[in-house]
Amino acid sequence: MNWKDIITIYLTDNYSLSIEFGPAILVVVLIIVAILIIKLLTKQNWGLRHDIELNINLGGIGNVRIKPNHELEQIAHKAWTELITRKAGLQFDLEHDVIVEVYNSWYVLFGEIRNLVKEIPAEKIKDENTQKLVNLLVDSLNKGLRPHLTKWQARFRKWYEHETKEHDDKTPQEIQKMYPLYGDLIQDLVVINQQMVAYTNELKKLLC
What we know:
- By secondary structure, the protein is mostly helical.
- It has 2 domains: 3-44; 53-207, no CATH class.
- 62% of the residues lie in helices and 10% in strands.
- The protein has helices at 3-6, 24-44, 70-84, 99-118, 122-125, 128-166, 172-176, 182-203, and strands spanning 7-11, 17-21, 52-56, 62-66.
- Strand 3 and strand 4 form a beta hairpin.
């Protein structure tokens, strides 16, 4: 291919400048357009998805590899929003946070995640990556939060309700520290909380 195949510039008999494009210009234009499209797809991550590995310590879930698409990103975004706006996805403050408020937040989270999973159309669940995300969301509740709640919540709530009536001159934070097994409870709660915070950060990887 030479320049005459692409563009020809010459003077006409009237001494005006004339420009003619050869058939090869179409090939050049198509190449340029293809390069721009590839760059755009790469930048926007459209159609060029890769597996994302999530490392989840919560509930001993372990490593999960998910290839996200637009629909999975939407599901993950809703779950991440529920986590990050509740106590479950925020660092527990030993001096200021109230345990029963944390449990209340976890209870609401259970309902929101269940509703989120139920909203996924049945035909979408057949997709392998959708199944992985659904299992991850459900396991985070059943394997992550539920064991602590089963062990501590009922006993602590019953004790706390009684003590708040007996010590109305004390703050909730002061009362909860009077719990006979406070050290064991809070140690377990902090571990779960830290794992939930890490889990929330891992889930955010699916939003990129």
